Amino acid sequence: MARTRHYKRLEKNAVSSFLSAMRRFFGAIGTVFSKFFKLCDSKLTIMIVPHAKGKVVNFQTNVFALACTAALVIGIVSSFVYFNRQAAGSGAEISRLMSENRQTLASLDELRDENNSLLQTAKRFQSSLSQALSLIGINQTSSVSRASMGDSDLSSLFDTQEQVTGSTREANDIRMLNSYLESAVQPIEEIGKMLESQENLFADIPNIWPIKGGIGHISMQFGQNVHPITGQWYIHKGLDFSTWRSGDPVIATANGQVVTVGYDMSFGNYVIIKHKHGIYTRYCHMSRSNVQKGQFVTQRQIIGYIGNTGITTGPHLHYEVHIGSDVVDPAKYVNVKLTTK
Q1: CA angle 64, 69, 72 (to 5 degrees)
Q2: Global model pTM greater than 0.85
Q3: Does 91 score more than 60 pLDDT?
Q4: Of the candidates 34, 62, 169, 329, which lies 20 to 30 Å from 127 by C-alpha distance?
Q5: HEC profile of the chain
Q6: For residue range 177-205, what is the model confidence (pLDDT) as tens digits?
Q7: pLDDT-based confidence at residue 264 (cuts at 50, 70, 90)
């Protein structure tokens, strides 16, 4: 029992201490608020005294009203500064956007110019393609499909481009041009197949530069020339190719069979190759040959090397083309199909 009474006494003392502390705390807060309100309610007299003679203006207020007025003035000034800065930033952003817009318009004008140039080029391409197809006997109307855009011929493109404006016009032009170019792929592929089928024919006819790699130059043309040794006029029956040195590879200008490998006082070391269609080619003044009589050679195969044998004034290749018993200008055949292989 004594212990119970002791605990109750401690509990009562703790509650009493807590309530006393709370009364002191709220009393202190009340005192602070009371002093604050008294301070805010303190009367102030503001006097405006002019330097010149005049009536003195005075009015009474309190601290609270003065503080509210000062806060209002500070808020207005702060808002003005803030919005002024925002306006300046917006002006700079508008200037930047206007500059970008001018650049974009300039780029758009350039794009339109390029688009017009592309359309003109495509128009010339159409004309050239039509002529090429008609020459080789390919029917363009059957090769070029008009179904994808109703009529993808470039004439329809130029007829309809005035019906739209702005970026829509450029986009429409490009779409129709793309459609035409896609439909033009088929006839071009047919041309490629036709040329590929003629590759064997080209390989059987002399039509390439007789020096490997396409190097050198023609030092004497076919026909009437002054002989470099005798100084007399004579008929030069071939082309002279020079690289200013000996040892450069000489290649067969077409498929054929070697019919002669020999030496002549005038031509030096020379090789004659027989080709199809009654065509012969002769390669002279070589330092040495690389083939034998009766051997079959293919176009671009090395048959010898440039030299200075026979009657010459320096290392070069004398090249002739014969059709049957007639000697013809090799330039007409060299220019058929140049090669650097």
Answers
A1: 125
A2: no
A3: yes
A4: 169
A5: CHHHHHHHHHHHHHHHHHHHHHHHHHHHHHHHHHHHHHHHCCEEEEEECCCCCCCCEEEEEEHHHHHHHHHHHHHHHHHHHHHHHHHHHHHHHHHHHHHHHHHHHHHHHHHHHHHHHHHHHHHHHHHHHHHHHHHHCCCHHHHCCCCCCCCCCHHHHHHHHHHCCHHHHHHHHHHHHHHHHHHHHHHHHHHHHHHHHCHHHHHHCCCCCCEHHHCCEEEECCEEEECCCCCCEEEECCEEEECCCCCCEEECCCCEEEEEEEEECCCEEEEEEECHHHEEEEEEEEEEECCCCCCEECCCCEEEEEECCCCCCCCEEEEEEEECCEEECCHHHHCCCCCCC
A6: 777 777 677 777 777 777 776 667 778 88
A7: very high
Mean pLDDT of the chain: 80
Given this model, what pLDDT does residue 335 score? 63
pLDDT band at residue 168 under the 50/70/90 scheme: low
From the list 245, 263, 339, the residue with the least C-alpha distance to 301 is 339
Say which residues have a Cβ less than 8 Å from residue 145's Cβ, sequence separation at least 6. Answer: 152, 183, 186
Q: What percentage of the chain has pLDDT greater than the value 90? A: 31
**CA torsion sign, 332 to 333 to 337 to 338?**
negative
Q: For residue 329, count CB atoms less than 10 angstroms from its CB and return exposed for 0-12, middle for 13-18, buried for 19 or more.
A: middle
Q: Which residues pair with 306 in a beta bridge?
A: 286
Where does residue 122 fall: left (phi above 0), alpha (psi -120 to 50 degrees), or beta otherwise?
alpha
